[in-house]
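User: Hello, can you help with two protein structures?

Assistant: Certainly.
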Amino acid sequence: MPGFCPELVGSMSEGAAGNPTGVMIEAAFAHHGLAWRYVNMEVATAALGDAVRGSRATGFRGFNCSMPHKVAVIDHLDGLAPSASVIGAVNCVVRDGERLVGHNTDGEGFLRALGERVRVRGTRIVLLGAGGAARAIAVELGFAGAAEVTIVNRDEGRGTELAELIAANTRAVWRPWVGDVVVPPGTDVLVNATSVGLYAPDDRPAVDVASLDNAGLVADVVFNPVDTRLLREAAALGCATLDGLGMLVHQGAAAVERWAGVSPDRSVMREALAAALTP
């Protein structure tokens, strides 16, 4: 089409070839008839500032940030949304006039997926890990009114720091990760917020498998494989499970909403993502 110039968004990361986000977002754009394109970009750490300036110059409407840029990108932005400010990391940048504003949709994506299965307010959560994903999830759980979040992590400093971060909004405690974690009775949701199991179908976090059925729901943020060992073993005990695709789909949908002002069809996005991840 003569004169055709799509609106541009994309992703900046290292190891960009392994990022499936563009598949589901492009599927959403096509489904809703939007003249937008999503560009997956390999950006080295030393070139991040140049890449952000380039996005300004070329009129990008926004972009995602993946590892290792989620914290470093903050120095190149004009402002932060409240969740990104509390979490201290950005995975979605939105152009607002001439300003680039950082958001964090990781925890929001998980919360939306979880909210399709349970009422989050008043829940008791056991959260495995205290890294970037765990931090984003914990903050959003606090905002959503979870009654209690138990953070299980080997590093006391990171675990207690995260507990203190969300303590204003929920009861939060750190528990040392020693040996196999025993899920306490009365747990509403167990969340694996670590990367254990990613691209490793035979791996799972160190948990006491027999105690998994103490949780009403077992969730995993790992999206590849979709059916992780943790979820398989939980399902074998009769537990309800939540896979990592929901979090990924909902965080992508949140980005599309911020960029294009359209609430995309999540089923279209999930179908495209699942197809892309099928061996």
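That covers the first. Now for the second protein you mentioned:
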Amino acid sequence: MHRPTRLAAIGGVAGPAAFIGAWGVLGTRLKHYNPLHDPISRLAAIGSSTRAPMTAGFLAFSVGLALYALSARDHLSRRVAALAAVNAAATIGVAAFPLEGFGGSFGHAASAFTGYATLAAMPAVHGRRGGKALSAVIAAALVLSIVDESHTGLFQRSGLTLGDAWIVATALSILQGRSQP
């Protein structure tokens, strides 16, 4: 495997790890924040003491996913790569339009929705066994995070973690010279 492809695949591990690590740690540090109820974006909201590190977590995920997209193009499919690239851009949008920030909630919501949709679609588009079922579970959790305000954080973290785990698994399979997890 070429060195650039290997480095790109590492982005599919490092990006999700940075993102999950950021919300996992920062969610324990912000006063009056409840990870079961509050969305991850609350950690990067205007005025939040955790705004800078959570924004860095979003951006690290974006960079990692953009690199992963380069590797996915050659080892998974062009459609998975395109979804990963759009997800990386959507995540930059989530960081650029924080809660209570510039652009109001529309920019943030549109970016988050695009990120949710592309993340949920990746396993199904990849076309491997179980991919459609996994996509359905991810999508269901992310939809529940929007409609069930009492457990937004729980459902959001569940859907995002499942999607990110799929990205990590496929990135590791690329690193091992296989094209499926």
